[in-house]
Amino acid sequence: MVGVRQFDEDEVVATALDVFWRKGLHDATMQDLAAATGVQRGSLYNAYGDKEAIFLRAFDRYAEQFLEAAGNALAQGDAASGLKNFFDMIIVNMTDGSPPRGCLTTRTALDAAISSTDVQQRVQGVLTRLEQLIGKAISGAPGKRSVADANRLARVIVTFTRGLAVMERAGYSRKQLRESATTFIEAVVGNA
Amino acid sequence: MVGVRQFDEDEVVATALDVFWRKGLHDATMQDLAAATGVQRGSLYNAYGDKEAIFLRAFDRYAEQFLEAAGNALAQGDAASGLKNFFDMIIVNMTDGSPPRGCLTTRTALDAAISSTDVQQRVQGVLTRLEQLIGKAISGAPGKRSVADANRLARVIVTFTRGLAVMERAGYSRKQLRESATTFIEAVVGNA
DNA sequence: TTCATTCTTGACATCATCGTCAAGATTGAC
DNA sequence: GTCAATCTTGACGATGATGTCAAGAATGAA
């Protein structure tokens, strides 16, 4: 290999993830990415083709990290405290940074109408895998829940996490989100 | 008044609402609005100043319609069936059109980072008023719930509706959203 | 050391949007 | 009917983003 790449691809993708997380796929520009990574626009085009290709790489990295963290949180303690850990994690995830970055998956989902099918599939992939993680976590619980019930409930839980992401964008504080999550867990998991 | 306006303002705002609902505040352009309303860009600038001013008018109209529909739905039957009506209404609201338009409030909330405080306040206003409507509806219910509990639960319900809006954007069908809503209602309202 | 290949750089053309403005059209008031 | 105020129209310049390209720089291979 001659004429070797002058930048660290991992670093560029990591920096790009930060840019996309703060600005969103649609609003982040190649200029933003070039400025943040220190790599010229032309080089980015040469290396990746276009903005979306960079986004897909960044999003894949994000999805892996996120789902692993979710799995870990859910696995700690029994089903109820696993869920609590999970909500804590997810709320920190979306309220972190200054200003807070929000939830990348949710932001990306909202741009579905103007996104490629590739992007849409990544979003669906994250939600589906999250549903499966949660379904397993709560169907393994002592309660006399059927697997079908657990799956339905898992989807409700995923849906609620998406709602939290929206409320964060609407201005609700970390504390308020935590309170809602607690109320939700009590109402949904405290029985049935 | 000489040199009178050549277009019907109500019609323009109604059409603008449709455009914003389909494209979002950020993605809709003045050209989109001009094409949809049949009013030249220059006239729109002259009459309203800028895109955001038109959006605020359209959004106010939307908010009124939406909150009135929500109130009506909640008021029909007891608290449980009121909630069911409410969810039915809200799901139809976001899955209507072809392609579906989604939820304008949620879409707007997600653009909070790039929106003016005026726009942010409208979003918060809708969510707050919706919370209050729901709080009243469920605190008037026979259950032995305190008002504080009802308010917390109302916020959880609003949050869940936001989640439904995200799931719709992620590709979930009307039927799937209805199933999640049913599961949610059973889990949250069926007890406590 | 030389060379061929790949990457990098800065400039370019294109496009879409924005906001403004001067000239013309319209119309209520007198 | 005339006039003055307001609206409408189409064009203009500015801006910022996109994607491409030719020329130069860098480097592994021989």
TrEMBL record, chains A, B:
Keywords: DNA-binding, Transcription, Transcription regulation. It comes from the Bacteria. Pfam families: TetR_C_13, TetR_N. Residues 6-66 form the HTH tetR-type domain. InterPro entries: Homeodomain-like_sf (IPR009057), HTH_TetR (IPR001647), Tet_transcr_reg_TetR-rel_C_sf (IPR036271), TetR_C (IPR011075). The keyword Chloroplast does not apply. GO terms for molecular function: DNA binding. Residues 29-48 bind DNA. This is TetR/AcrR family transcriptional regulator.
